[in-house]
């Protein structure tokens, strides 16, 4: 018995150890997924292709270990990679996939991040729709006090108002984002805030402030190898120098910026550089070079126009498709809820039916028992009633007999009274008369003595007869017949 218990203890310890090892391995795998997702996200500004490859690797690992949070985040980052490659329809597909996964996990912070990403897709198409997504992100971020997400939301809201040419509101949001990015020491956010504020000052013709901020942003971008940021910052600096007729500085930043734009392979920013070169050469009055850039722009305009139109149409179609799918999903969910409610209601009705049937059976049994008890009681009542009837009948007979006896006795008493008045009164009167004669000495007592004895005997005989008649039920009269 002891050996058996020892063997069970060893098996239990081995199972516990295996469970712990599996738990450690799963934790390690999920940590690896998170690390890859983080690294791929950090590459979005420098190498979006690498962002997509790394995020897909993380997604594959997350699927293998069933790490739903990591899977949702990797899909979001893949969408970000496609966004920086200007493939907005592909980006939207991954964003929507991630959004559904975060909703399933009830992760509102994940939903907020995706809403922020979708807002960036709409920023050049529909300002109001874009703001709607950004404000939703800001609300959730403030609820959880996620300062990096709050700062990013302010930055994107500022970008939207910049495109709406509401520069004062845009600047206020940029300043809020800059304060938070500096507080949490986010170099990418700090650089973007510097760049965006510089653009605002450029748009409002405050060239000195704009140049100072943009040069600082340029330095930080190079420090952190933010190639895409360098290309866009240099474009703004070039525009400032062209406006100030500093053509050599403009040319320097245009050449440097074009190199970074080609490095990140951003067709949109490359187009902007060609157009800015055209502006530079035109202002220099170098019309031949300006014409060359203009021809190149004309070709790119046609290509980019068609590409942008196609991309916008795809984005809108995809959005409409997603909205339709969402409506269908909501309808399906509602149907499932209705079916669930119906199932619950059916279950409740079934339970109530069984309960009612149980009550009916119980009530029926109780009713039968009560009826049986009532029948027993009723039989007892009938029996008692019959006994009472018999007693009443006997009482009636007794009463009749007694009544008859009383009638006879009354009759006898009446006869006795009459008899006394007639039969006994005579001898008594005779006896009384004799006594008077004796008292008056009219006769000798010895002479009347037989007469007296005769009267007394007569009276005694009558009394005996009356007693006999009263006590003899067979006699109805005092006088003998």
Automatic annotation (TrEMBL):
<keyword id="KW-0472">Membrane</keyword>
<keyword id="KW-0175">Coiled coil</keyword>
<dbReference type="InterPro" id="IPR011990">
    <property type="entry name" value="TPR-like_helical_dom_sf"/>
</dbReference>
<dbReference type="InterPro" id="IPR036097">
    <property type="entry name" value="HisK_dim/P_sf"/>
</dbReference>
<dbReference type="InterPro" id="IPR019734">
    <property type="entry name" value="TPR_rpt"/>
</dbReference>
<protein>
    <submittedName>
        <fullName>Tetratricopeptide repeat protein</fullName>
    </submittedName>
</protein>
<feature type="transmembrane region" description="Helical">
    <location>
        <begin position="342"/>
        <end position="361"/>
    </location>
</feature>
<feature type="repeat" description="TPR">
    <location>
        <begin position="151"/>
        <end position="184"/>
    </location>
</feature>
<keyword id="KW-0802">TPR repeat</keyword>
<feature type="coiled-coil region">
    <location>
        <begin position="306"/>
        <end position="337"/>
    </location>
</feature>
<dbReference type="Pfam" id="PF13424">
    <property type="entry name" value="TPR_12"/>
</dbReference>
<keyword id="KW-0812">Transmembrane</keyword>
<feature type="coiled-coil region">
    <location>
        <begin position="374"/>
        <end position="401"/>
    </location>
</feature>
<keyword id="KW-1133">Transmembrane helix</keyword>
């Amino acid at each position: 018995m002891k050996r058996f218990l020892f063997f069970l203890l060893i098996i239990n310890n081995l199972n516990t150890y295996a469970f712990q090892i599996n738990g450690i391995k799963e934790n390690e795998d999920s940590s690896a997924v998170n690390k890859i997702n983080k690294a791929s996200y950090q590459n979005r500004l420098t190498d979006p292709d690498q962002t997509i490859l790394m995020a897909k690797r993380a997604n594959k690992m997350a699927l293998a270990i069933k790490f739903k949070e990591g899977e949702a985040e990797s899909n979001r980052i893949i969408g970000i990679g496609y966004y920086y490659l200007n493939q907005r329809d592909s980006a939207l597909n991954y964003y929507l996939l991630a959004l559904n996964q975060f909703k399933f996990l009830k992760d509102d912070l994940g939903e907020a991040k995706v809403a922020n990403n979708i807002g960036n897709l709409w920023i050049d198409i529909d300002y109001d729709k874009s703001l709607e997504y950004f404000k939703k992100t800001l609300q959730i971020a403030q609820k959880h006090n996620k300062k990096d997400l709050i700062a990013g939301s302010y930055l994107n809201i500022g970008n939207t108002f910049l495109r709406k040419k509401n520069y004062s509101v845009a600047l206020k949001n940029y300043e809020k984002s800059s304060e938070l990015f500096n507080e949490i020491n986010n170099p990418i956010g700090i650089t973007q805030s510097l760049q965006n504020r510089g653009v605002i000052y450029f748009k409002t013709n405050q060239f000195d402030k704009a140049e100072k901020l943009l040069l600082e942003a340029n330095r930080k971008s190079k420090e952190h190898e933010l190639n895409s940021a360098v290309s866009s910052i240099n474009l703004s600096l070039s525009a400032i120098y062209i406006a100030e007729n500093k053509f050599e500085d403009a040319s320097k930043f245009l050449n440097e910026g074009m190199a970074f734009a080609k490095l990140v392979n951003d067709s949109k920013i490359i187009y902007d550089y060609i157009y800015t070169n055209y502006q530079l050469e035109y202002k220099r009055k170098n019309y031949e070079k300006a014409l060359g850039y203009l021809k190149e722009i004309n070709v790119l305009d046609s290509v980019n126009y068609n590409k942008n139109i196609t991309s916008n149409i795809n984005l809108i179609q995809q959005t409409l498709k997603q909205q339709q799918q969402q409506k269908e999903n909501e309808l399906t969910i509602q149907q499932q809820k209705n079916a669930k409610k119906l199932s619950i209601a059916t279950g409740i009705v079934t339970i109530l039916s069984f309960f009612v049937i149980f009550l009916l059976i119980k009530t029926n049994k109780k009713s039968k028992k009560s009826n049986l008890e009532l029948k027993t009681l009723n039989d007892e009542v009938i029996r008692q009633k019959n006994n009472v009837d018999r007693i009443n009948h006997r009482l009636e007979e007794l009463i009749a007999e007694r009544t008859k006896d009383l009638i006879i006795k009354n009759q006898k008493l009446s006869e006795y009274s009459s008899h006394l008045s007639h039969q006994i009164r005579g001898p008594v009167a005779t006896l009384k008369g004799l006594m008077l004669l004796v008292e008056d000495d009219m006769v000798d007592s010895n002479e009347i003595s037989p007469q007296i004895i005769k009267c007394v005997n007569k009276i005694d005989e009558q009394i005996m007869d009356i007693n006999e008649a009263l006590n003899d039920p067979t006699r109805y009269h005092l006088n003998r017949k």
